[in-house]
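Hi all, long-time lurker, first post. I run a small reading group and we've been trying to get comfortable going from sequence to structure in the token notation. Rather than ask abstract questions, I figured I'd post a concrete chain and ask someone more experienced to write out its structure so we can walk through it together at our next meeting. Sequence below, copied exactly:
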Amino acid sequence: MAFPRAAWRSTGASSTDPALWASLSRRQAADLTVPGASIGVLGGLIAGGLAAIGGLPFLASLVAGAGLGIPLALAGAGYEVLVARGTVPLGPLTPMALYWMIAFPVVRMFHAGVFAMYVGSAIAVPHGWLAFFAYQVLVSVGFGIGFWWLHSNFAPRWWFHLREKGNPVAEHYLYQLLSAGVVQRYARGGVTTDGRSR
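-- Answer (accepted) --
Happy to help. Here is the structure in token form:
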């Protein structure tokens, strides 16, 4: 059973209106970047923890964690800004994976450069920079999927908090998610086109 195209359009499930972004204060805009930045920090903590478990000294583990976590947090915040401005749609995996296919190798090159300055290039990038970059492009898809999963499962909790503080973009995000849920229930025969349960 297909959901009528006109009904899908009426749900508002599309990119964020750029006018909503323009209406935000700096604080509200910064609040929207928290989920993406938090996922980046988490990536840095995991990298630092694995480096420590792998036997690196404390300072080397700290360099590994911070060298990855800080640029990942900035890239995650950048993704959130693109979504909030309406440049990238909220939800689909493909735009997120494409974003990380560009951002993740750049972040990893920075991380490897910082780590190479600390431990030496032969250890940080044993097969050369070009091979390292090509490998990071491949790995970026896996990171993009992980980012998408974490974002899809944890960002809405933050958006509920922001909606209560009067953030119009967070309210729009939650409306999009609710509308998508109604469309899915309709496709399974659970609701009518006006959103009522059968």
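A couple of things your group might point at:
Residues 104 and 121 are 20 Å apart (CA to CA).
The radius of gyration is 20 Å.
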